[in-house]
Amino acid sequence: MPRSVTGPEIERLIQLLAKLPGLGPRSARRAALHLIKKKDQLLVPLAEAMDVAVSSIMVCETCGNIDTTNPCTICADPRRDASTIVVVEDVADLWALERAGAINARYHVLGGALSPLDGIGPEELNINRLVGRVASGGVGEVILAVNATVEGQTTAHYIMDQLAGLGVKVSRLAHGVPVGGELDYLDEGTLSAAIRQRTKF
Amino acid sequence: MQWTDDGIIIGTRRHGETSLIVELMTRAHGRHLGLVRGGRSRRVQPLLQPGNSVVATWRARLDEHLGNYTLEPTVQRAARLIEGPAALYGIQLLAGLLRLLPERDSHPDLYEATATVVDWLDDPAIAGGLLAQFELRMLDELGFGLDLGQCAATGTTDDLVYVSPRTGRAVSRGAGQGYHDRLLKLPAFLVADDETPHPGAGEIADAFRLTGHFLARHVFEVRGLQMPEARASYLALIARIVPAEAAE
What we know:
A: Helicase, Ruva Protein, domain 3; 2 domains; 4-stranded parallel beta sheet; two-stranded antiparallel sheet; B: alpha+beta; CATH 2.40.50.140; 5-stranded antiparallel beta sheet; 3-stranded antiparallel beta sheet; 8 strands
């Protein structure tokens, strides 16, 4: 059995870092060592930032986004188009759309997609609140920006059924060739979707 | 341990950051799960969608291990399936039914039936009937098959249009005349040998009412499970989009 070369505090730090995405035990050990070496410049500010984050992070009661205010910065921003709601599965998707800067609308985070294998049904998702937001008025379009997977699209159709009769336009993202994509490297499914959804040039 | 078999993907689950646990309905090894390393990569994930057919090679040190899959796609239907709600609800319903099977229990007939249904899922006029027939076959495979060959009261094999909700046996039109409000309707397509039935929405609803009654009683309620959510959504959709009368 390998002997521990550090105290339990450092071992715990390494173990926790190893739970982060992209880090295994070996890279966690390197990260921990780097933090320890740069204690004043990195470790202490990081610990303080994490402490502040723990006490101030909250989930927006309107859209399900994660922020330090409730309602979140996006929901509270008067410059955003409140008549359009972009529905995403996860906060990471919201951040991706914001990075792209493609739309200046408000969001709604579902918290996942319908997945019988994972036991995620409509009750586990933030769908009722979305229906409530739309029903309360002022929304002209709902854009379903969910993943182009069977689960994502099932969720999209379920939401569309729930929104039927509320007099709102429902659209979804196009499926097809990504920018920079070479046709001979694309899977057949994406290619046939691109052909079916071709647009006039 | 190692085997290679044909399979149809019926579900996936994330495992860690880069891998997927893939659930297959295989020809000879039944419903079988396995890990696909790198299955969440941008290149591989589009191939590992429910509805796609694959040739699967499963490897594990011991038989009881989850094991690793190497999957080679053969038919990619997922892009077609995600085009419309009927196919999406259909594949979810199909997967929900297949999950009633114990893992690694061979059901080659159900594999063939699954392959037929997924091929037609984007045509709800045919898939509705095939899914109802699939539910009937599912009852049979789970040991609760219905006796639809002859009338429980008279023994006749003609004009069987009802099923007793208590015994699961067919009843002829004549014998069931006085009790028709208490019997379940037996649509003719459900027991016909047609590989691509074209029943009307009314017949499909009758068929699902029949299979649903016995699935609920013998399988779902006993196991404390709910019917798949997709079943109700699928039936509501079929009622809207399939013509009420059967096509000639």
